[in-house]
Prior knowledge:
mainly alpha
Amino acid sequence: MAYVAPILYALFVWWFSTGLVMYVVGRDRRTHVNSMLVMSALSIGAFYALWVTSNDTSVAGAYMAFTAALVVWGWHEMSFLTGLITGSRTTPCPGRPNEPTNTRAPLVPAIQSVIFHEIAIAATAGLLFAMLWSGANHVGLWTFVILWLMRLSAKLNIYFGVQNLTEHFLPANLQYLKTYFCRRPMNAFFPFAVTASTTATVLLAAAAAHVAATPFDVTGMTFLATLLALAVLEHWFLVMPIPAERLWSWGLASRSEIPEPDARESERVVLVTT
Length: 274
């Protein structure tokens, strides 16, 4: 039970939080301001929870730190998908079609399309290191770092080229990002990324199973190993013909709830764009 409960908790939170973010960002854009305000308040509370548990080496402390780090990460995901924090370039890649191709986009425009988001995540990681490194509970810190590194790896793989680009997860306001994607069966970086992350997963699982591990160590390492294993699975989704979106069909359903613009609104759009 010492391993089963953290595994099941991590699985549920991964699945539910991903779907919830998809549902929120898929709603009418007029709701995004309120959603980000709520998420910002939750994120402030999560930072406080991470600070309070920085020296808490109980099982409850591990659960709280893991959950709080996921909330902070969720804020970054929502800030990106709502278009609040993306990059200096918010237009399609110059000279490329509107759909992904089998050639890579120029590197500089691709970086520009996400640079502010990456800087914000790196700044948050730096803040978490400053807050938590001297403490005894690093579960929240490493949870955020794993999510950051594995998301960065996924972005690099999508840039270099993979079969399943997950473009159907992009909301309407970020559809221009598809022009920076590359569709190929696989790329040279993918095996390295999966091998390195799988090795790290095994090492974390071994640490959780070590005979000298305390209940806190078992819980924290199991959380991290499970989270990393799920990230590896998401990487495999990129190169295998698996409709991963079915796992979160309920989260994507909000996109069908957006009302169609009326005729007058359509006329205004035409006038502005012509």
